[in-house]
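PROTEIN DESIGN WORKSHEET
SECTION A - STRUCTURE
LENGTH: 167
TOKENS:
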């Protein structure tokens, strides 16, 4: 169980790293397309559009930023590769099938125990309900002491008995 949690942590880390890699790729493409100037790549195809000088970086700054983006991409890709290599080998299908069969058997046993516990609970509930019902029925037949009777010495107890029977 603990080992599976460790694998899940690695998978979560891998998911986070891939998400960061995609973010770096996305921002790199956005930077390269928005901060570069148009360059003529073929003498046969003229440049038809010019970009405002404030909207693109100088060639030396652009090259430095490109190198930084490449470094970030490579570093993140290596982190992803390391996490992929640290994942466990997949379990053979036969072992998975056996493990699932064992879990199924354990689940059936647990379900049977649960059903028995529920049955026992219902039985105990019925017993307690009947016991309470019989006790309440017996209480209604207890004679009430008269507080005004000169033979009653404990007036407070008689008053309490009288009060509970009136309710």
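SECTION B - SEQUENCE
RESIDUE ASSIGNMENT:
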């Amino acid at each position: 169980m603990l080992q599976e949690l460790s694998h899940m942590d690695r998978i979560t880390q891998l998911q986070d790293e891939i998400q960061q890699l995609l973010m770096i790729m996305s921002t790199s493409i956005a930077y390269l397309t928005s901060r570069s100037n148009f360059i003529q790549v073929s003498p046969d195809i003229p440049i038809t559009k010019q970009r405002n000088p404030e909207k693109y970086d100088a060639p030396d700054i652009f090259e430095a930023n490109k190198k930084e983006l490449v470094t970030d991409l490579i570093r993140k890709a290596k982190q992803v590769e390391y996490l992929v290599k640290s994942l466990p080998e997949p379990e053979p299908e036969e072992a998975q099938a056996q493990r699932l069969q064992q879990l199924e058997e354990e689940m059936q046993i647990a379900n049977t125990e649960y059903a028995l516990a529920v049955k026992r609970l219902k039985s105990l509930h019925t017993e307690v309900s009947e016991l309470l019902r019989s006790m309440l029925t017996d209480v209604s037949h207890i004679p009430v002491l008269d507080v005004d009777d000169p033979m009653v010495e404990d007036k407070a107890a008689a008053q309490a008995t009288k009060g509970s029977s009136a309710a």
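SECTION C - NOTES
The chain has a mean pLDDT of 84.
Residues 138-167 form one domain.
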